[in-house]
Specification:
A 4-stranded antiparallel sheet has the order 2-3-1-4, covered by helices on one side. A hairpin with a 6-residue loop joins β2 and β3. It folds into 2 domains: 41 residues, Arc Repressor Mutant, subunit A; 78 residues, 2-Layer Sandwich (Alpha-Beta Plaits), CATH 3.30.70.920. With 141 residues, the protein is of the alpha+beta class. Helix content is 42%, strand content 21%.
């Protein structure tokens, strides 16, 4: 859906700031009626523009987690199958295809080093993963 208008973009921006905002508060913030906001929201969801609502964790919680970026090289003929398996690993919170030496880049968020180690082992044991390199994320720059 590429025909988003100015009001759609306003609604999406407001939801990025607070995905839990009520229809009533969104309507007041955007100077629209509640019915208009609900109709636009329903349309954006039905069209797949809004795929899901999520939770953003506080810095205090995020600082306790082990975070990393993993670059993954795939065996070409198995890429779809590998990607489907990677998407089922709950600690892999983001996955992108890329160019260059690596085929995929994933973001890992684990509860502990032991959990992180298990994620690495799980990924490396997936048939079709040829190689990987992982970098721990230490401090925000």
């Amino acid at each position: 859906m590429s025909n988003l208008d100015y009001r759609d973009h306003q609604l999406l921006s407001a939801l990025r700031q607070d995905g839990r905002a009520s229809i009533t508060s969104l309507a007041a913030q955007l100077d629209m009626s509640r019915v208009t906001v609900q109709t636009r929201l329903d349309r954006l969801m039905a069209a797949g523009v809004i795929r899901h609502f999520t939770v953003e964790l506080s810095d205090a919680v995020m600082n306790d987690r082990v975070r990393a970026v993993m670059m993954i090289e795939l065996q070409g003929a198995m890429s779809r199958r590998v990607i489907n398996k990677l998407r089922k690993v709950p600690q892999i919170v983001d996955l992108h295809s890329t160019n260059g030496a690596w085929d995929l880049v994933g973001t890992i968020e684990a509860e502990s080093l032991a959990d992180f180690d298990q994620v690495l082992r799980t990924v490396r044991e997936i048939e079709g993963v040829l190689n990987s390199e992982t970098c721990l994320l230490l401090n925000k720059a």
